[in-house]
Design goal:
233 residues; mainly alpha; 9 helices; 84% helix; elongated
Length: 233
């Protein structure tokens, strides 16, 4: 029978291996993301990823038996980071800790940053020709867009707008920022970027204020109805 000390050592050894494995998988995903941004998914071969990461191909295959599994896991973590950023911003807006301008600006700088967009677009395009990757990417993106809508509803709940209307506003924001980043990658123009961001902020604020104005009369109407009933009594 093993002693308590032996069991503790075995547990620590297992934990140590798990930590090292997690670190290695993170390194492999980072190398994969870099290569996709530089040369595209098709050229990001298993050998090229292993070389970029500085490990043997055998070591890479120990953690990811196939290249597709590595690319899919890279895509999942890539978009999870984006969701986490949006979740933090949505919470800040919902709690009044930040405003629409900061929300839009940080989305553009942190979620739709230049290299990230290149990686995103290449994964989406490659998914159309590589069935396994394509199906996985489509599922990841579907969940991501749904979470964007849910987080947007959380951020702008105080506006009084119905969730479906807020979903439209979030789609407007995401689509505009994505298109702006693509355009700026092709033809950089900082002044144009700032002008578009400012206009987008004005549009979103106007739409949200419209919700506030629509909600206000309803509250007054209820008070008037209550007063009228009390007078009748």
């Amino acid at each position: 029978m093993k002693s308590a000390a032996s069991l503790t050592e075995a547990s620590e050894a297992t934990d140590g291996r798990e930590v090292k494995g997690a670190i290695m998988r993170a390194r492999l995903r980072a190398a994969t993301e870099q290569l996709i941004a530089e040369v595209g998914v098709d050229a990001a071969s298993a050998a090229a990823i292993a070389l970029r990461c500085g490990v043997s191909r055998g070591a890479m295959l120990h953690h990811y038996p196939t290249r597709d599994e590595l690319i899919i896991d890279t895509a999942a973590h890539f978009w999870q980071r984006a969701r986490d950023i949006v979740a933090g911003l949505a919470e800040d807006v919902g709690n009044g800790r930040t405003d629409v301008a900061t929300f839009v600006g940080r989305l553009y700088e942190e979620v739709f940053r230049a290299n990230a967009l290149v990686t995103m677009l290449d994964l989406m395009v490659s998914g159309r020709s590589e069935t396994k990757i394509g199906e996985a990417v489509n599922g990841i993106l579907s969940d991501l867009f749904t979470s964007y809508e849910d987080l947007g509803a959380q951020a702008f709940e105080a506006s009084g707008l119905p969730p479906e209307r807020i979903h439209v506003i979030i789609t407007l924001v995401v689509s505009t920022l994505r298109g702006l980043r693509i355009q700026d990658n092709i033809h950089p123009d900082e002044a144009r970027v700032r002008a578009v961001l400012a206009t987008l902020v004005e549009a979103v604020e106007a739409l949200l204020q419209k919700g506030d104005r629509t909600a206000a009369p309803r509250r007054v109407s209820k008070k008037k109805t209550a007063t009228t009933r009390s007078r009748k009594r």
